[in-house]
Amino acid sequence: MTWQGLLADQRFGKPYTQEHNKGRTPFHKDYDRLIFSSAFRRMGHKTQVHSLSHNDHVHNRLTHSLEVSSVGRSLGIQVGQSLQNQPHWPSWIEPHDLGAIVQSACLAHDIGNPPFGHFGESSIRHWFASYAQQGGMTQLNLDEQSDLLNFEGNAQGLRTLTQLEYHQFNGGMRLTYATLGSFVKYPWLSNSVQCERKSKFGSLQSEKHILADIADRVGLIQQGDFQWCRHPLVYLMEAADDICYAIIDLEDGVELGIIDEQDVLELLAPITGPAEVPKRTAMVDAYYSTRRLALLRGKVIDYLVQSAAQTFMQHIPALLEGKLEGDLISHCDPITQKVIGDAKALAKNRIFLAPERHRTELAAYSVLEKLLDGFVPAALAIGEPSDDKRLSFKAEKHLALMGAHRPEQGATAYQALCCTMDFIGGMTDNYAVDLARQLSGEMK
Description:
This protein is mostly helical. 61% of the residues lie in helices and 1% in strands.
């Protein structure tokens, strides 16, 4: 792969122009388009880790994405500064352009996530598995069934960026190929060998030709049928996400009283050194109970950013050959690997297994179950052959609620279900809860 191709500034769904506003490159415009989109705005009411939390201090998908984009920008600029004097580097790409590409990819990395975060994904998969066992997906071929049985926010994100926002089914946000390539974390389909290995995929069957177009324009190396290597900048986006995900989850755990602050301070000590404990007073205790970790966060993130950027530069040949195994963090120095690994383990063992999460996740599952029970049969009824072309009263009312996401008359079963997931997947947590409650007969 070459940087000339990987950093293509042509826009998906729009004729190419070389005329750019001075000081505001196409990559900076990508960031603006994402920031002003309704899909991005809705993330302000979507779960990061703690579903339906009443504590306004914990993170949601929007605040998490903004923080990841900030770290990603720093990573991109540092790498850009190291690369700009190398042979074959495009003369028109500045370090801040590379920073903007990674920043935009980071900003969009969770844009396809459904209500209730990763638990929402699991709930949707479980519902479709049960629906299939009842014979409810016989109208779909095996590849189409795979998309729903393995519902994936990353694939829904590509559909959101290229199909749903702004220019609907005509280029979507019309982002640059460089940004789209850096966004696609898993450039393969749900039925690929890679998906079997990683349990993740980056495109639905409905967008597979868009994925192929992106891969072709930026020059990704093909590794199978509709399967490519990753764009090198994906590793920076993923590293930024890992850094924020690991550190910020722990802060939220302390904020909610699920884990003890001292456990986190000890975990970060390889980077921060022993935490200085001030002389205790009532005022000091009140201040440091919520702020000490925030004060140390900058030092920790700075160390991890430096480590990830240096590691990226050390593996440039493997990255350009599409041969780097694992993620970037797994190749970093031992301290980086230990801190992030221990942070993820602490979150998994203490935060994700907390009783409070079990209660809210059961409630979230009930919400999604109610929505899918109503909207999926209604959407499938649109394409069902019948002597009586009229839909049932109940189906028509469900479809009316879908608004712009309502499937067109005569849509295939797969197209109708994609539209349904556009509607349900795009909901905020609060809207999903309110709508499910109303559909259950609760009028207030």
